[in-house]
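Sample entry was shown:

___
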Amino acid sequence: MEIKELNHEAVLSNLPDRDPWGHKGTFGKVLLLCGSRGFTGAAYLAAMGALRTGAGLVFLGVPESIYAIEAVKLNEPVVFPLPDQDGILSAQAVPEIVKRLPQMDAVLVGCGLGQSEGTLAVVKAVLENAQCPVVLDADGINVLAAHKDILRGRSGSTILTPHHGEFARFGGSIGPDRMASAAQYAREWNSIVLLKGHETCITDGETGYINRTGNPGMATGGSGDALAGIIVSFLGQGIPPLEAAACGAWLHGAAGDLCAKELGQYGMLPTDMLLRLPRLLK
C-alpha cells in the first residue's frame, strides 16, 4: 500500500479555488446531524469547524429540545429542530432528514448525537438515501456497530472517524501496524477510515496518509467534533473523500500546534483551534 504524508503546501493545493463569480451555494451545502441534551457543544463545534474552513451553507439539524440553545449560540449556520425523545433524535426525524438529502453535497452524522433506536434510524436513513459523501463520527459509528453490512451497499463514499475505543466497538482490531489495521477495515467495509490518535492514519485500503501534526493538548472533549466539521466542509467543496479526510486531519492538528505554541497545551481549547484555522488557509 502506498503511504503518503501531507505538508502545508500540499493541503493548500488540494483546496479548490474560490470562484470570484461564486455564491454561498457554490462553496458546498452540507448537512450536520449532531447534538443531544447535555451535548450541545458537539453540534456547535462541528458546525463552526465547517464554517471556518470554507463551507458555503451549513445546515444543522438538532433535537427540538436543544434547538433554542443552538440557535442562540450559532449565527451563521441554518439551525433547524427535529423531533426527539428524551433529548435524542427520534425516528420521527427521518422524513425531514431524507427530504433534505438530495440538496446536499455532503453529510455529517454523529457528533454528540447519543445512542438510541432513534439515532440508529437516523444513521441508517442517511446511509441508505444519501448519494453524496457521508461522515460518520462518534455515536454515528457506535450505533451502527451491529448493522455494518449497510456500508457495503453504499454507492456514495463513507468516512469513518473512530478513536481506538470506537474502532474496537465497531469490530476493528488494532495491531502493531495501525495503518495496516485501518486499511484492512476500510477494505472490508467499503469505507475510508480515519483512525485517530498519535500520528492519525487515514486510508481507503489502497492508499494511506499518516498525519504528523497535532499534540496532546488536543486530547480534550470537542476536538473530534471540530475535525468532523472540517472534513464535511472539504467534502462539500468537492475535495475527493480520501484527501478531504487527510487534509482535515492535517489542518486540525496544525491548528492545535498553533494553540500549543501560543497558549500552551494545558489551557488550549477546541474553540481556540477554530479561531486559528483561517490563518492556515491564507
